[in-house]
């Protein structure tokens, strides 16, 4: 196990080096500028479209409502990254890591918008009559005629890494975190948690994306709002420390002290790396996962779904991760020696003695459960792209087994593996978005020109 961990750590150091950080942030910034900062300017319009799409989309094409498409995408993003991931980033990278999570999220809104636009524009209908899409399809259908074999390699690479990455970011780390917090908070054995969680996941994913989307459409808004409400109560209790927390975040983002010392600039690099890596782990902007869910939306307009899709990054990181980070910083728990979800629990417990830890444990369990559901869709679509519809049932069985297996593995290695696979999955997607950017800019320009003409 030690050799495997060392090997994975070596690969992690390469794929999460400066070139990848520059590519992720650079792609988001390039798209944001190319869109004229539209994702920020039209944030309100996105929320209006989301509210209108609760009961249905603007077309019968698609299996799920645009609202439930976002909830499915959010079910996969709002998970251990929002609770445990933020805590890990703050311990390793210092408070400044939260600033870099914000920066990643702001440009990530443009990335997520572009992903959803491309997903709807280049989606297909499979042999079962389902709308399927995502990076492998917009690479194949958007770039295939021009780039030939290169596009084929890119599409297959994404599908391959996406299928494997799902077992890390969307399965193992989630069930592992739930097992840990259930043992610490409720004294439930990991094996028991694994069996119960595997059974529940199996019951839902056997119904396919429609059942998953229905469950996500109920659980995600309820638990998300409950966590935000509880977090705001804690921040209200800690209100006196909030201004100093913001000052520390901005100061630490550009200070070598952010990582506890070291050579000049080393701490800054750690803060940036942790902020970007954990930000991507949480909101998944650039990974290419969310567009797989958006491709199933009942809509004929790629831009409308893009406006809804970009909200996922805003809600996940700007809202939920910020609340977690501020609570940890204002509580003073960051120096307790704890890390991950236990640190977040301790931070809540400081403000809400006796119940704070249980609130976090419950939130983490629900978030992680929905993440496993959402990522089952992503992994399934990737496997289907490679092997066809015959691979769907075997994949679902393997996915359920992996949920249990994840409860028996050490957390440190699961985080490392998921972190590494994220980068390998993002690379072909980011290349595709850059190559497809002229199309994305053009359909966006046309949509808003028509919208203005009709208003």
Return the string of H and E elements: HHHHHHHEEHHHHHHHHHHHHH
Q: What is the mean pLDDT? A: 90
Give the strand line-up of the largest sheet: 1-2
Which radius of gyration do the C-alpha atoms yield?
21 Å
Number of domains: 1
Can you walk me through this structure?
The protein is an all-alpha fold. It has one domain (12-449): Amino acid/polyamine transporter I, CATH 1.20.1740. 79% of the residues lie in helices and 1% in strands. The chain contains 20 helices and 2 strands. The chain has helices at 2-15, 18-34, 38-41, 43-52, 66-77, 80-93, 96-121, 135-147, 149-186, 190-205, 208-237, 242-252, 266-283, 290-294, 302-309, 311-331, 341-351, 356-387, 392-406, 411-454, and strands at 124-125, 131-132. It has a two-stranded antiparallel ribbon with strand order 1-2. Strand 1 (124-125) and strand 2 form a beta hairpin. Helix 7 runs parallel beside helix 13 (266-283) and helix 16 (311-331) packs across helix 17. The longest helix has 44 residues, at 411-454. The protein is globular, with a radius of gyration of 21 Å. Residues 258-266 have low confidence and may be disordered.
């Amino acid at each position: 196990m030690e050799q495997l961990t060392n090997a994975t750590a070596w690969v992690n150091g390469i794929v999460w080096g400066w070139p990848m950080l520059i590519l992720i942030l650079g792609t988001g910034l390039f798209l944001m500028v190319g869109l004229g900062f539209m994702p920020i300017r039209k944030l309100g319009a996105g929320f209006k479209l989301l509210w209108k799409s609760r009961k249905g989309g603007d077309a019968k094409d698609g299996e799920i409502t645009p609202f439930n498409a976002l909830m499915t995408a959010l079910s996969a993003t709002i998970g251990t990254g929002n609770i445990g991931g933020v805590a890990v980033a703050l311990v390793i990278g210092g408070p400044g890591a939260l600033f870099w999570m914000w920066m990643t999220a702001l440009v990530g809104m443009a990335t997520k918008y572009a992903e959803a636009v491309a997903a709807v524009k280049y989606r297909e209908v499979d042999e079962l009559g389902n709308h399927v899409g995502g990076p492998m399809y917009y690479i194949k259908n958007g770039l295939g005629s021009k780039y030939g074999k290169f596009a084929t390699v890119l599409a297959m690479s994404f599908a391959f890494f996406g299928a494997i990455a799902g077992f890390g970011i969307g399965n193992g780390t989630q069930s592992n975190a739930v097992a840990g917090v259930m043992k610490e908070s409720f004294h439930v054995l990991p094996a028991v948690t694994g069996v119960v969680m595997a059974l529940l996941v199996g019951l839902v994913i056997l119904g396919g994306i429609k059942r998953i989307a229905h469950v996500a459409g109920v659980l995600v808004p309820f638990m998300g709002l409950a966590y935000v409400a509880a977090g705001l109560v804690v921040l209200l209790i800690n209100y006196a420390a909030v201004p100093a927390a913001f000052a520390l975040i901005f100061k630490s983002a550009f200070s070598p002290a952010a990582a506890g010392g070291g050579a000049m600039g080393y701490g800054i690099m750690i803060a940036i790396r942790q902020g970007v890596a954990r930000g991507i782990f949480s909101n998944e902007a650039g990974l290419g996962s969310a567009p797989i869910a958006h491709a199933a939306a009942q809509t004929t307009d790629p831009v409308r779904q893009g406006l809804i899709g970009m909200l996922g990054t805003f809600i996940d990181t700007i809202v939920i991760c910020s609340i977690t980070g501020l609570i940890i910083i204002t509580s003073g728990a960051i120096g307790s020696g704890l890390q991950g979800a236990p640190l977040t629990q301790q931070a809540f417990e400081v403000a809400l003695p006796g119940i704070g830890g249980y609130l976090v444990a419950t939130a983490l369990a629900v978030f992680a459960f929905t993440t496993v559901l959402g990522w089952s869709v992503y992994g399934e679509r990737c496997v289907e792209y490679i092997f066809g519809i015959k691979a769907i049932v075997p994949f679902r069985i393997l996915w359920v087994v992996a949920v249990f297996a994840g409860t028996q593995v050490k957390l440190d290695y699961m985080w490392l593996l998921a972190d590494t696979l994220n980068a390998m999955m993002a690379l072909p997607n980011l290349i595709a978005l850059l190559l497809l950017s002229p199309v994305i800019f053009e359909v966006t320009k046309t949509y808003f020109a028509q919208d203005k003409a009709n208003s």
